[in-house]
Amino acid sequence: LHVSAQQVDGQWVACRPANQENGTSTGQAEISLQQSLLAYPNPSNDEVFVRVLNDVEQIALFDMSGHLVYESNPTQPLERIATQTFAPGVYLLQVSTATEVAHQRVQVVH
């Protein structure tokens, strides 16, 4: 597996050639949902920003008990989640497209 990096919106993301499976390269990068997912700042005080390059259908945030604490169907590539009312702790961020689901842990501190 050959992995390269490219800068997207000022952030470096890992990517691989689109046809790496069959040994050919088109020169076009295919970036998975997990690779394009960026949640910051992490840990968070008052808010978390979620940036994704793919077309996102749903963003959800769960506490460690599995309870849904935030849900959105974003229309922009950058989503702001206000966390000032959340209890301090670790949360699971879930981002879904029509074909992929990605997860990332987010820590809230006050």
What does this entry look like structurally?
With 110 residues, the protein is mainly beta. It is built from one helix and ten strands. It has one helix at 33-36; strands spanning 4-8, 11-17, 29-30, 38-40, 47-51, 58-63, 68-72, 78-82, 89-96, 101-108. Strands 7-6-9-10 form a four-stranded antiparallel sheet, with no helix packed on it. A three-stranded antiparallel sheet has the order 1-2-3, with no helix packed on it. The longest helix has 4 residues, at 33-36. The N and C termini lie far apart (41 Å). Residues 16-28 have low confidence and may be disordered.
Could you give the order of the helices and strands? EEEHEEEEEEE
Main pleated-sheet profile: 4 strands, antiparallel
Please indicate the percent range of residues in DSSP E strands (runs of 2 or more).
over 45%
Helix content: under 10%
So what's the overall shape?
globular
What is the tally of beta strands? Answer: 10
Q: What is the gyration radius calculated from CA atoms?
A: 15 Å
Separate helix tally: 1
Task: Give, in spatial order, the strands making up the sheet with the most strands.
Answer: 7-6-9-10
Mean pLDDT: 82
The first-to-last residue Cα distance is 41 Å
User: Runs with pLDDT <50, length 5+?
Assistant: 16-28
Structural class: mainly beta
